[in-house]
Amino acid sequence: MEAGEILPIDCWQSIFNHLDHDGLEAVSLACKDFLTIPNIYKHSLQVIHPGVDMLSKQLNRFKQLKSIDLKPFTGDLDEVILEIARSDISLQVLDICHRYGLKAESLKELGSNSKMKNLKVFNCLMRDSNLQDNDLVVIANSFPNLVELDLKIFNFLPNKCLANDSCSTWFPTDAGVEILASKLKLLKKICIYGEHYISDRSVVALASNCVFLQDFTLWCYRNNGVTEKGIGFLLRNRPNLEALSIGNIKMDSPLSTITIEHSISHAKALTSLEFSRMDVSDMLLIAVAKAELRLTKFVLHFCKKFTVTGLLMVLSNCQLTKLGIVESDIADVDMELVLSRDVSKLTHIEIKRCQVTSSTLFLLSTRCPSLLEIRMKQIALDGQINDGGNNFPLLKNHSVQNLCLKHCRISDKLVKQLGLIFPNLKVLDLSYCCRFTSTGIEAILKSCKLIRKLILREYLNKKIIEEDNSELPEVNLEDLSLSWTGIDDKGLAAIAKRCPRLVSLEVSHCDYVTTEGIKQIVNNITTLKYLYMRGCDGVNSGDLLEWMLSTGNLASLKKIYLGQNTFTEEQMDQFSHRGCLLR
């Protein structure tokens, strides 16, 4: 009896709607009916295989796709866009990444498919390629019902080119943005980030034409003509604006009437506010505080001229859940004042390149009972503890689940203390930190039994767990990132023994990892799905792949990330037929 005869189709729909991609893939192998039913309920697809033929088969199989992600795709982007354009699917979300250019004709053909008129979200990331006004016109004409548009350009021109006005034709200008604004009447969210040659004209056009605009991001790196007069116009004319993130905005004279300071009170719906790389005075922060906004997120990113006085005003008048302070003169004594306010609702905090120490970290653990995530980067955390300046009571904070301490000086003593203070950690990132060893790592893994993800990029030692003398029991670690570390085969053997439930392992650019070390991992960890080992000179990819095929040691593996030109198309097909992708 087939599965479909036991329960009606709507019952299977209710069941399969609760499954993720891997779950749907697994049940599709159970029987013929289960192969057919998930096809109907798969709504998103990430395209990885560079062959357009593979995508063609997927488009024919999954007729109900609503979202396609092409960011990891490494093949011919124009070909794949045309393949989607000629399919029968009705997309709502499309993510693409320009690496070597995209022809406007491809987007035109995509837009000529009547079913693509339903596209609501278009995210376009440009690397080493350009986006011009003509491309914006094509986007506007092809997808008139867009609700979200993300335009990021990371193709930076040399400084000498900036003196040449003709360079502006390589990137979007006011003319292109004005056409976008006039066509996309339903737009709620727009992000313009990177290299753009625009001015207040663009901001005024978007504020005037896009009456539903709720989320506005504008970070232009160079030759930016946007001033706070344009942002002031936006704040005054879009009262339904909920999120504003702006960077490199030219500040006007204090005597000007249309400034951010004089306009912020109009944005009564604002819940998220981010300033980046611009002058933010205490007067502006006081205006934000007095506006009685419903702010829950506030970020100051590489901003100057503000002091803790202005910051305190914002904290005193807003019930923030997310706070970010990146590169400022804020010190421990300032953070003590900040945390003396009502921060009971604070769930996420980021402090980077500030003059704080471990004192602030321990204050966060005691004064912020709702904190879920702490991110501190480029901070000298070790100083006062090792100097004996303070004796902190090790009170437990059971709420923090994600702790990121990148580019910090951390000793084994501090790592042990972190494990005692934050026993419910699930994600720990100690990348680019120095001085701690396997002693600290074992201690925190022993204290924090819920840790599922550990990131240790550029860890200096060969082991994170001692092979023979370790008292660490088996841990439930699922995701381990060790790229650019000193880990060796013996270190991998200890990981395989103590972390038998790993799902993802990254050892990219690890000079002491060899083919035998990877074989040990694959042999002993039966749950492993994702293996990253790009740039490992000691790994012979050809021998490793042949060993996997001949021994069948890839039953759980879904994706293997190798260096360029380390596998053949035949090997890629062989692994693909076994349900595993080579990248």
SSE blueprint:
Elements: H1 3-6, H2 9-16, H3 21-27, H4 32-41, E1 44-46, H5 52-61, E2 67-69, H6 77-85, E3 93-98, H7 104-112, E4 121-126, H8 133-142, E5 148-153, H9 159-162, H10 174-183, E6 189-194, H11 200-209, E7 215-220, H12 228-237, E8 243-247, H13 260-263, E9 272-276, H14 282-290, E10 297-301, H15 308-317, E11 322-326, H16 332-338, E12 348-352, H17 358-367, E13 373-377, H18 383-387, E14 402-404, H19 412-421, E15 427-429, H20 438-447, E16 453-455, E17 479-481, H21 489-498, E18 504-506, H22 515-524, E19 530-532, H23 541-551, E20 559-561, H24 569-577, E21 581-582
Parallel strand pairs: 1-2, 2-3, 3-4, 4-5, 5-6, 6-7, 7-8, 8-9, 9-10, 10-11, 11-12, 12-13, 13-14, 14-15, 15-16, 16-17, 17-18, 18-19, 19-20, 20-21
Helix pairs in contact: 5-6, 6-7, 7-8, 8-10, 10-11, 11-12, 14-15, 15-16, 19-20, 21-22
